[in-house]
Amino acid sequence: MRTCSRTLTRLRGHLEERMRTQLRKRHKIRDRKMGFARFTDRDLYGKYGLYKVPTTAGWTKAHASR
């Protein structure tokens, strides 16, 4: 489960970064730091409708005795 959580966290970060990159290109903002300041996480998920990927798995460990 730890590996899955780490993977989902990395996926979430990647999606946020790609969304910011697209928004920076659309609004002609060259500086990456300004992109983080202008497009906060709240904006990405609220205003732009980015799906919030859960960082924990919705299942438990698979075990043969269960």
Describe the structure.
The protein has helices spanning 2-26, 32-38, 41-47. The protein is built from three helices and no strands. It has 66 residues and is mainly α. 59% of the residues lie in helices and 0% in strands. The model has no long low-confidence stretch (mean pLDDT 86).
List the helices and strands and how they pair.
Layout lengths: L1 H25 L5 H7 L2 H7 L19
Distance between the termini: 16 Å
Tell me the fraction of residues in β-strands, as a range.
under 5%
Portion of residues within helices: 55-70%
Give the number of DSSP strands: 0
> If helices are DSSP runs of H or I spanning 4 or more residues, what is the number of helices?
3
Structural class call reads mainly alpha
Structure described in brief:
The protein has helices at 2-26, 32-38, 41-47. By secondary structure, the protein is mostly helical.
Q: What descriptors fit this protein?
A:
single chain, 66 residues, mainly alpha
